[in-house]
Amino acid sequence: MTTVVWFRDDLRIADHPALAAAADDPGGVVCVYVLDEASAGIRPLGGAARWWLHHSLTALAASLAELGATLVLRRGPAGEEVPRVVAEAGADRVLWNRRYGGAEREVDAALKRELRDAGLTADSLPGGLLHEPWTITTKEGGPYRVYSPFWRACLAAPPPARPLDAPDTLRDAAGPVRSDRLDDWGLLPTRPDWAGGLAETWQPGEVAALERLETFLDERVDDYADDRDVPSIDATSNLSPHLRWGELSPRTVWHRATEPGRASAAFLGELGWREFAWHTLFHAPDLAERNLDRRFDAFEWAEPDAELLGAWQRGETGFPLVDAGMRELWRTGAMHNRVRMVTASFLTKNLLTDWRVGERWFWDTLVDADQASNPFNWQWVAGCGADAAPYFRVFNPLLQEKKFDPEGRYVGRWAPDSAGRMPIVELPFTRERALAAYARIRGS
Ligand SMILES: Cc1cc2nc3c(=O)[nH]c(=O)nc-3n(C[C@H](O)[C@H](O)[C@H](O)COP(=O)(O)OP(=O)(O)OC[C@H]3O[C@@H](n4cnc5c(N)ncnc54)[C@H](O)[C@@H]3O)c2cc1C
């Protein structure tokens, strides 16, 4: 038997259930990644994500080579490319780890049917979440709409499966299979090459991801609960892009973080938010398009204003914490969580801009942009998401700055000129305008 292992958002060799299951196949294994920008409903990657993918695939190919296997690269609709790889390899089994987005599930289900109809074995395995979304349900059997009871239910469920070891060795069966050259995919920016700051900030790949996890657990997890909201302190794990690309499995993070002696409850709770976002996407596949709170379908967003939007994107609003966050994002492909909330609130509440506009900008610029966490959090900040708060939250960016960057360290690093700029809007007026727009839909 020869097995094709189809890699997707799981660019790792440890705790990779599909790879582990294929490792002992006497006919060998063909490892393949398909760049699918063509299947219906698959969202094309943003620029920062393409940069990360290039480097993460390079790292994965090196790890597989050490085990004796080749990473085959193909571009096109997965429903066509995977069967071609199977035919070229003469394989009789295809394995992959599950995805949870709506369009992805349709692609996978159709392919599984087609392969099975052709007499092959085709199986999908869990590996991208702590719990499968259909296992965490309310008493009535539906999905949770609020985080706290959701997370309590996760904590009461059987613990996530223990992570699997990476295979010691693989028997490569990719010989007869054609592969693209990664450089030909043009994932890296060239003219202009805006990725210098990304390269200075990040090292994509599983080896770097595991190192980051260990450093965080050894040096920072004990202070995480106290310091996680202060953007000038390097207090958080910075694991989000590694989790996004599956260079690290959440099960690995969970089991390392729950070893005795670690004060990790607050950190695990954040993994819980990731889990909640993905479970929400599973039940609401149009999360990036449609308001979870349908009352917001009637919300009166302001007319699009290219000048105001451009000022927000460039970090030229005259509100220092907003400007610092937007510039950090542009330079590094990331932004501290507290500042993500403030910048998103400023766009949706003070500029009264539809959250989907901001979501798309983050999608293009974040290295950790994922199809669950990004729209989930944008909806949460906009007020139409999965939120238990009974009121309409409008962050004041000046008060947030006073509270979370009192000495101006974060602002001084990213936007020292911002305080001297003329603010592009008036806070009291725009706050009242947002509250009035909400009042008009509240009872609907
Ligand atoms: C408007 C907005 C958009 C966002 N878009 C994304 C996104 O596209 N991808 C993404 O991974 N996170 C997103 N987040 C959540 C959060 O900002 C990042 O996960 C966090 O800043 C990553 O830093 P860290 O790895 O140091 O997190 P830590 O504080 O160390 O947390 C550990 C892990 O928990 C997860 N996590 C933490 N907070 C959240 C959260 N609110 N929602 C979901 N998962 C969370 C991440 O995987 C993170 O790596 C967004 C938040 C906002 C407000």
Automatic annotation (TrEMBL):
Transmembrane segments: none annotated. InterPro entries: Crypto/Photolyase_FAD-like_sf (IPR036134), Crypto/Photolyase_N_sf (IPR036155), Cryptochr/Photolyase_FAD-bd (IPR005101), Cryptochrome/DNA_photolyase_1 (IPR002081), DNA_photolyase_1_CS_C (IPR018394), DNA_photolyase_N (IPR006050), Rossmann-like_a/b/a_fold (IPR014729). The keyword Flavoprotein applies. It comes from Agromyces soli. It comes from the Bacteria. The keyword Isomerase does not apply. Belongs to the DNA photolyase family. Gene3D superfamilies: 1.25.40.80, DNA Cyclobutane Dipyrimidine Photolyase, subunit A, domain 3 (1.10.579.10), HUPs (3.40.50.620). Its cofactor is FAD. Residues 1-130 form the Photolyase/cryptochrome alpha/beta domain. SUPFAM superfamilies: Cryptochrome/photolyase FAD-binding domain (SSF48173), Cryptochrome/photolyase, N-terminal domain (SSF52425). Keywords: Chromophore, FAD, Flavoprotein. This is DNA photolyase family protein. The lineage of its organism: Bacteria, Bacillati, Actinomycetota, Actinomycetes, Micrococcales.
